[in-house]
Write a structure and sequence with these properties.
The chain is α+β, with helices and mostly antiparallel strands and 360 residues long. Strands 1, 4, 5, 6, 7, 8, 9 and 14 form an 8-stranded mixed β-sheet that branches. A 4-stranded antiparallel β-sheet has the order 11-12-10-13. A two-stranded antiparallel sheet has the order 2-3. It binds (3R)-3-hydroxy-3-methyl-5-(phosphonooxy)pentanoic acid. The site of (3R)-3-hydroxy-3-methyl-5-(phosphonooxy)pentanoic acid (PMV) has 14 residues, from α6.
Length: 360
């Protein structure tokens, strides 16, 4: 879809310059990691993720016609006004104005909250940017009274969420999504994610993600800075080859329900992501002693019990323990006995693969 062309065509016929939209959107956890980007937030490699269900952002936007001189944006998080976020959202709106030009005539009041505690150290950019992008696309739908399908709305929201935070574009679709052109995934592109719900074995739709919070302090190096270090990375080319190989194994494992291969690739990707950080120039490390401690305990537990569980990491020290529903009671017991004492403030979040965003 050519969204720039659509924006030009839509600039007539404006209705209802006031209203309300509200969306809840989840976070996602990458199985194949996006690390490195170019252009307007385009990925250097394809990535795959599970969409989560409990770690969500709820966003409501009310809008009306702006008076020329008034402040056009108010942002509230947990009902408290946050001017520092207003600057960032204004910048984002400026970036997407070519695709949603009507926004320049509106005053927006945005109210947002997260289901997960602020202190849990969980990145909220995927859930928050996908919820906001959905609200903005929904405003377009209301203003122009267009009757586009839910699918069309989700695709455009994915395109726009990507411009705010790359990995956010995968949160728009239930169960699992692929972002980035891959010869293995029909319709995959760099500008938005595509759902792969129909290409995965049912066992993956039952998967849980136990988020083990190892450290909740702000990261010493942001994802933005980490992506940038990939531009001149010694292993840039090697990483591309590795992703092509891991994508092939992952898409096959997802389609066939091969849990052994799934575990092998998920863990290879998690460790490779952090190896890329540790071999950047300048090098940095986001892992903490208890990250390694938990990884070793998960490996030992798997070795002894032969239960199919895998650890992964995002760009931080927290562990995501992925496992199918039929072994939930054994995994929860393992977490409570061995892993929870290693978590910051004993915090872990019992999340699971989910259906994607909902309107509220
Ligand atoms: O979307 P960003 O810029 O926050 O980058 C996210 C990168 C990883 O979480 C490390 C990997 C991924 O694919 O989500």
């Amino acid at each position: 879809m050519n969204y720039l062309h659509e924006a030009k065509q839509l600039s007539q016929a404006v209705h209802n310059l006031q209203g309300r939209v509200a969306w809840q959107s989840p976070s996602n956890i990458a199985l194949i990691k996006y690390w490195g980007k170019h252009g307007q937030q385009l990925p250097d490699n394809a990535s795959v993720s599970f969409t989560l269900s409990k770690s969500v952002t709820k966003t409501e936007v009310t809008y009306n016609q702006a008076d020329n001189n008034e402040n056009r944006l108010e942002f509230y998080f947990d009902n408290a006004r946050k001017p520092e976020f207003e600057q960032r959202i204004n910048k984002y709106i400026e970036n997407i104005l070519p695709y949603l030009p009507f926004l320049k005539d509106l005053k927006l009041v945005i109210r947002s909250s997260n289901s997960f505690p602020h202190s849990a150290g969980i990145a909220s950019s995927a859930s928050s940017m996908s919820a906001l992008a959905l609200c903005l696309v929904d405003i377009e739908k209301q203003i122009f009274e267009n009757h586009s399908s839910q699918n069309t709305l989700l695709q455009k929201a994915s395109f726009l969420a990507r411009i705010g935070s790359g990995s956010a574009c995968r949160s728009l679709f239930g169960y699992a999504a692929v972002w980035g052109t891959s010869p293995l995934v029909k319709g995959s592109v760099d500008t938005m994610a595509v759902p792969i719900e129909h290409n995965i074995d049912p066992v993956f739709k039952t998967f849980h993600d136990a988020i083990l919070v190892v450290d909740a302090t702000p990261k010493s190096v942001s994802s933005t800075a980490g992506h940038e270090l990939m531009l001149e990375h010694y292993y840039r080319h090697g990483r591309k080859l590795q992703v092509a190989d891991n994508m092939e194994k992952m898409m096959h494992a997802l389609a066939s329900g091969d849990l052994d291969s799934f575990i092998q690739v998920v863990e290879s990707e998690a460790l490779s992501l952090h190896a890329l950080m540790m071999s950047s120039e300048p090098a940095f490390m986001l892992l903490k002693p208890n990250t390694i401690n938990i990884i070793q305990r998960i490996k030992a537990f798997r070795e002894t019990t032969k239960l199919p569980c895998a650890f992964t990491l995002d760009a931080g020290p927290n562990i995501h323990l992925l496992y199918p529903h039929h072994i939930k009671s054994q995994i929860v017991e393992f977490i409570e006995q061995e892993l929870q004492p290693l978590c910051f403030d004993n915090v872990w979040i019992d999340d699971a693969v989910g259906l994607g965003p909902v309107c509220w």
